[in-house]
């Protein structure tokens, strides 16, 4: 059953509990393809996607990113790294690729969650663990697996977040 893009967008939720079964090579490839085809400033494509296949590496990264500790109980992770020298909008580029990958994972029936990488010391530790060159910036880690929970977030009303012609005008 194929889903309309808006249905995919609206039904995606951050998933932080996963079943143990692995994500297939075909699924991994599709998720990476979704990232690769994201828009980027001047089509600079400043990203590198580090696929975390090793449980040991996921556990070590989870120890650094304690707000994403569930990464140690996740069958797959992808870290998004960007090169600030290649794009003037490297963070936005990395974020666009991340969202594409979250949506593709969801459309494949997988669950995923964006895990922030912020704070100089945490980022430096993560870069060291993953052999990421000094000049790169880490945007996030994405946890991916077969979902063992359903998310239940809501959103602010459209009328509350949209304006006509001028900010605040409805
Ligand atoms: C920039 C960004 C950083 C996030 N960082 C984390 C994080 O470190 N840990 C986490 O569990 N969720 C993280 N999330 C997921 C958000 O908590 C989640 O998207 C939000 O609560 C809305 O829930 P939903 O994705 O289920 O709709 C992050 C999301 C974004 C966009």
Key terms:
binds flavin mononucleotide, alpha+beta, NADH Oxidase, four-stranded antiparallel sheet, 16% strand, single chain, globular, 6 helices, 170 residues
Structural class: alpha+beta
Strand fraction: 15-25%
Identify low-pLDDT runs. none
Indicate the radius of gyration in whole angstroms: 17 Å
Number of strand elements: 4
Helix content: 25-40%
Number of discrete domains: 1
Q: Would you tell me which CATH topology applies? A: NADH Oxidase
* Count of DSSP H/I helices: 6
Strand order of the largest sheet: 1-2-4-3
Please give the alpha-carbon distance between the first and last residues: 38 Å
Biggest β-sheet: count, sense, barrel? Answer: 4 strands, antiparallel
Average of the residue pLDDT scores: 97
CATH class: Alpha Beta
Principal-axis shape equals globular
Quickly give the CATH architecture.
3-Layer(aba) Sandwich
The H/E string reads HHEHEHEHEH
| CATH superfamily label | NADH Oxidase
Bound molecules: flavin mononucleotide
Task: Outline the structure in words.
There is one protein chain. With 170 residues, the protein is an alpha+beta fold. It has a single domain (17-150), classed as NADH Oxidase (3-Layer(aba) Sandwich), CATH 3.40.109.10. It has six helices and four strands, in the order ααβαβαβαβα. It has a four-stranded antiparallel beta sheet with strand order 1-2-4-3, with helices on both faces. α2 runs antiparallel to α4 and α3 packs antiparallel against α5. The longest helix is centred in the middle third of the chain and has 18 residues, at 90-107. The protein is globular, with a radius of gyration of 17 Å. The N and C termini lie far apart (38 Å). The structure holds flavin mononucleotide. The site of flavin mononucleotide has 11 residues, from β3.
């Amino acid at each position: 059953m194929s889903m309309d893009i808006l249905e995919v967008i609206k039904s995606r939720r951050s998933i932080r509990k996963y079943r143990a079964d692995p994500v297939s090579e075909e699924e991994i490839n599709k998720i990476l393809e979704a990232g690769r085809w994201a828009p980027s400033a001047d089509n600079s494509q400043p990203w590198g996607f580090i696929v975390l296949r090793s449980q040991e590496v996921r556990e070590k990264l989870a120890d650094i990113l304690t707000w994403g500790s569930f990464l140690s109980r996740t069958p797959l992770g992808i870290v998004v790294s960007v090169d600030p020298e290649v794009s003037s909008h490297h963070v936005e580029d990395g974020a666009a690729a991340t969202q594409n990958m979250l949506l593709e994972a969801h459309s494949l029936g997988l669950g995923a969650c964006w895990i922030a990488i912020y704070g100089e010391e945490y980022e430096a530790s993560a870069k060291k663990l993953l052999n990421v060159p000094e000049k790169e910036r880490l945007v996030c880690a994405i946890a991916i697996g077969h979902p063992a929970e359903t998310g239940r977030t809501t959103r602010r009303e459209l009328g509350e977040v949209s304006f006509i012609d001028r900010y605040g005008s409805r």
